[in-house]
Amino acid sequence: MRMDCDGNSLLHQVAIIGDFQPKERPGEALHMQWEIQWFKKVKKIVPHHFLSHLNNKRLTSQELFTNTHKDLVMKGQEWIMRTSESCSVVAALIATIAFTSAYTVPGGNQKNSGHPVFLNRRPFMVFAVADAISLSLSLTSLVIFLSIMTARFDEQDFHHSIPSRLVLGLTTLFLAVSSMMVAFAATLVLMIRQKLHWAAIPIYLVACYPATIFLALQFPLYVRVGWYTIKDLARTMRHSFLK
Hints:
The chain is an all-alpha fold. It is 70% helix and 0% strand. Helix 5 packs antiparallel against helix 6.
């Protein structure tokens, strides 16, 4: 393989960040993930001695990659922080609602025994289980997003570590939102089943509308991050196994 006038090998040229940004990966963090994946793909096919080759500025390809991607790493960190903060607010809100609902159960409690009035009804059990799941998953999601916000954001963290945490955090958050909607629907069944049964379906639709909007807006990001991260992890594991 030939060198250019600056002594750059093929791997050096790949390490230089260009103007191209894949449209299917929105956000600077996913762009940085793509840059790392592309660099590592080329790194596997070039001769081994190219890894330690120095250009005219006495830089290896890895050092050049680090220098040219500093700004993208900073922008990726800001993007991840904004995403994690917004998701943390939602997770904290769901956890607060789920925790409050556990003490203010639908129908109230019996005066003598203190047991819930609807304890023996099936919708109440659905409410109790869904509320517990929502509380657990929302707190888990909150912890994950807090771990992302306190990460050191090293260059290589954008390859697997940060995207994997983001996927896990979004997964638990989506499940927490869905569980909260199930708990709310079960509460409506208990409270309006007798008097307003004719309005049950419209009320369910209106109640689920905010959660549906949130899921619809965040789901494309979740799919993209999850797909490219899991796909690359599977490829890496398969390559290691073949070795």
